[in-house]
Structures are given as C-alpha cells and as structure tokens.
Amino acid sequence: MSLAQLEYFVAVAEEAHVGRAAQRLHIAQPPLSRQIRRLEDELGAPLFERTPRGMRLLPEGEVFLAHARAILRAVGDAQRAVRARHGV
Amino acid sequence: MSLAQLEYFVAVAEEAHVGRAAQRLHIAQPPLSRQIRRLEDELGAPLFERTPRGMRLLPEGEVFLAHARAILRAVGDAQRAVRARHGV
DNA sequence: GGCGCTTCATACCCAATCGGTATTGGATCG
DNA sequence: CGATCCAATACCGATTGGGTATGAAGCGCC
User: Fold this and answer.
1) How do the domains of chain A map onto residue ranges?
2) How far apart are CA A85 and CA B82, in angstroms?
3) Near-strand D residues (CB closer than 7 A)
4) If you average pLDDT over every residue of chain B, what do you get?
5) Which residue is nearest to nucleotide C20 (CA to C1')?
6) Which fold has domain A3-87?
7) What band does B1 get if pLDDT is binned at 50, 70 and 90?
C-alpha cells in the first residue's frame, strides 16, 4: 500500500468514477484502475462495486475511506510539524 | 514521501545506526542512506545529526518520529479494519 | 602523527514499478 | 440490435528502488 494509492482511492470514492478521478489526479484512466485494483488485492477485499455507471463504494470501502482520509491528514500534519519547527 | 520511507526512518531512529537498521529491514545500507536523505530533502529539514558513531536524532527528528509512528499505526489500523469487516 | 577501524555517502548497474497509449469486454439505453 | 459509456487488459518507455563496489571522514590506538 502506498500513499499515492490512498490519494487515488479517495479521489475515486469521491467521484464514483475512475475517469473523472483520473482527470482530477492528472493521470490516465488505466493506471488509476490498476492501482485501485491492486489496493483491493492487497487488502484482500473489494472496496467498490463496478457498475455500468461507475464505481459505488461497498461497506468495506466506506470503512476504509475514513481510515485513508485520516492517514493522509496525518501525513500533512507530519510535514507541517517538521517544516514549522525547522522554520523556527 | 512514502510509507517505506517512514518505516525506514523509524528503524534508523530506533537503532541510531544505518547499518543496523538496514539489517533489521533486510535491505542494504546504501539504499537506506539514500531514502533517509531523500526524506530529509523532501521535508526541507535534516532529521539526524551524522556522527562517526552513527545517527543522532535532531529535535526535528524527534517531532517527526512521533508523527511517523502515528501514521504507520493508522495504516495498520486501516488494514485491520477492512480485513476484519471482510472476514465477517 | 600515522595506521586501522567504523561510519555514512557516492557511483554505477540491474530489476521492478509506474504511468501512457491503444484496445478490448461488457452492460445499458435508445 | 447498434451506439455509447464504463472499467479492464496489453503492451511500451521512463522512473524509481535496491544491490555491489568504492570513497571520504572522523575517532581510537599504538
């Protein structure tokens, strides 16, 4: 699992659409699909239901979404903390 | 910044020695040195003081260490949460 | 003071990963 | 039943990551 995958996952969850999420992330659709799939493989559980209209979060996905956001927030906090201290 | 870099950083901080940390992480010393340096570069602040006896955490490093551990703990929590729910 | 040891850093190489383009497969709707 | 809109797959070039060999610098001990 990588931090990029977490950002990708959050984007797809919010857009409910791989193509739109890819645009927002400034990458192409296929690599994004792949990363989402790899994340699911690594977790051993599907996070989305694939529909002809896009991606719908499964309950496991909802659970993971909250954790992913917390992790990304913690990363931002860590960077800010060090930079703030260094600035001093 | 990657999760691997955070694990590497915690190992080096705990061992206060790149060589020992590398052994513990099952990678070679030079790649580990590089990742630590890249992390410092990206954060824009040195985290360790290099001494002839090893690595000593700087105050910025102490601050970052707490954050790094929190992030890694959050990652473990996220994995466990999804797997637990999927197991059900 | 010089030799040797220990430590992290650098140089170079190869393998793995990542993202891009082109295309396919599948479901829905007119 | 054909057009359309999805995500998924195949393949390729570029980037990144780790390994081996080597260097540079500080400390300790004769």
Assistant:
1) 3-87
2) 35
3) A 17-19, 29-30, 33-34, 36-37, 50, 52-55; B 2, 4, 26-31, 34-35, 38, 51-53
4) 97
5) A28
6) Arc Repressor Mutant, subunit A (1.10.10)
7) very high
